[in-house]
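Protein modeling request. Please complete all fields; requests missing the sequence field cannot be processed.
Requester role: graduate student
Desired output: 3D structure, token encoding
Chains: 1
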Amino acid sequence: MSPAAPATTITPTLRRRRGLTEQAAVAAVDQACRRLRLPTVRTVLDEALMVAGKEQLSYQGFLAELLLAECDDRDRRSSVRRVKAANFPRDKWLGDFDFDANANINPATIHTLATGEWIRKGQPLCLIGDSGTGKSHLLIGLGTAAAEKGYRVKYTLATRLVNELVEAADEKVLAKTIARYGRVDLLCIDELGYMELDRRGAELLFQVLTEREEKNSIAIASNESFSGWTKTFSDPRLCAAIVDRLTFNGTIIETGTDSYRLAHSLAQTGHQG
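Delivered output (273 residues):
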């Protein structure tokens, strides 16, 4: 026996559409785009028809242009959603970073990190330096670049994360909260070391680091060198374990002690004077 023919084929469907007027065809395309959730095709259709006529595109070429425009715009919208979901406190891009203002930071290293390969491998990143040296700009810029490349990113302040973990533990939902932070591809923790953490807070933070170890990346920014982390984590053994989690197979960038923000403000003041 020969295999059964499919219930419907495209040819009879096309035949039924031959009698459509131009106006009805336009309405049908609009309705179909809405139903299939193709907003970009709806938006660019008129322009694409003009280009197709001018450049004498084949049917396949015309269809390819429309579908690729939809794919490109869908990728762009997804990128915007991922950046927004990361919850960055402000917009910072690597392209805006002034490498000339801080000779401690190697542009080649940052551009290599911007490829996201370290995130694919689940490696950590530490940005260490005084206030105003560009740590947060680089942290947010690299996080934004990662989100634009398709990685799931989450930004938080160290104290905010610890407070959330303490509340989760009190409300008996700690495992769920740690799992949520464990799922993102890159967790950016800013201002680690600005405030001393009690033992409970430090232990809860350590659980998050352990959950992500060698699986998903963590990037931190701290104003304290590793030798000074005992001020933040009072238990020496716990402090050593946390440093180990954040540095193993990772990249450490020291942004120095000269504040770019202070130098910029002084230059502006001098210029105005």
